[in-house]
Amino acid sequence: MQNIVRILIQYRTSTISREAAILTLVLAALALTIAMWTQLKFAALPNMMPLTVGVLVLDILSQFAPQTPTVRAVQSMLFGVLYLAITCFCGVLAAYATQRFSLPLQDQFFERTDLALGVNWFDVVHWVDDRPVIHEILKLAYGTMSAQIALPVVVLAFLDNTDEVRKYLLSFVIALTVTIAISALLPAASPIALVDRTTFHVMQFTGATPIDHLMDLRSAGSLIINDRLGGIATFPSFHATIAVLIPLMLRRYRGIFFVLLVLDAAMLCSTITEGAHYATDVLAGSCLAFAAYFLANRVIDAKNHLSGELLVMYPVACDTAGATRAV
Q1: What is the tens place of the pLDDT at every residue in 271-310?
Q2: Global pTM?
Q3: Mutual orientation of helices 279-313 and 254-273 as an angle, nearest 10°?
Q4: What 3-state class would DSSP assign to 49?
Q5: How far apart, in whole angstroms, are the C-alpha atoms of residue 42 and residue 47?
Q6: Please, which residues have CB within 8 angstroms of residue 270's CB and are 6 or more apart in sequence?
Q7: How far apart are CA 184 and CA 168, in angstroms?
Q8: E-state strands within the chain
Q9: Terminal CA-to-CA distance of the chain, rounded, Å?
Q10: Mean pLDDT taken over the chain
Q11: Cα–Cα distances in Å, from 68 out to 153, 158, 163, 169, 184?
């Protein structure tokens, strides 16, 4: 029992929960298994080694510095950001690999759903295309996704809120895993497949599903992807998930929260225009953010409650673990 208590003590001080680590490993295993099974290869992948080595070197160097709250915050931030980078890497590979299942495209269904919601994608995009200033604002908001993904880790780590960092990382990987699973079962080419891009004045659709990749993935036989990978999942929109999840995580910090509300309202709109998503994708992605956040909170709170009870029941083990950690 003392060993269990020691494990739980270590869990309470770690920014990455075991559940989050397991889900990332699941994504990696899924990508590798399907890629081998379907003879899918990637010729141009981002090199994760410099980031990994850099984080490990900085962590080693930080061990020689006085263990102040700032140093501990930097350590938490470094490993949190590294975890996000690795998870995104595994997620993109898994998203590409699962499209090899080649299930029927659901674009007609999503288009009908949009119309039922009172949204006509073509009308919305042409309206923005006729207003270059609005287009630039939405495009800028759309491009903030990567920075926003890292923001909660940085803010919460420097506020010494390890528990919230842990909840955020678990929420993120839950949402990413579910997005990949749903998009494999309900694939779509997005509205951009139905239009001639040359008819637009300023619209660039930088976040649109790479149609050539999607169609190649759906073909039989071996395949080598030579180009830079993009967002292959259409439904639900992961951009929309991030636009809801980040303000949700930082809602207690009003200064940041109100800025995020404005920025992410624009990002939700840009998901339809710059990302070429159906409104249905945006709605589903937004709902997924709340579901992932709720589930992650339940899991982390339950483990915290259990570890708290055990630490009360076995204080000797707690002291022993603390002494070991001090040495």
Answers
A1: 999 999 999 999 999 999 999 999 999 999 888 766 565 5
A2: 0.88
A3: 140
A4: helix
A5: 12
A6: 138, 139, 141, 142, 239
A7: 24
A8: 40-42, 223-225
A9: 22
A10: 86
A11: 18, 11, 19, 24, 46
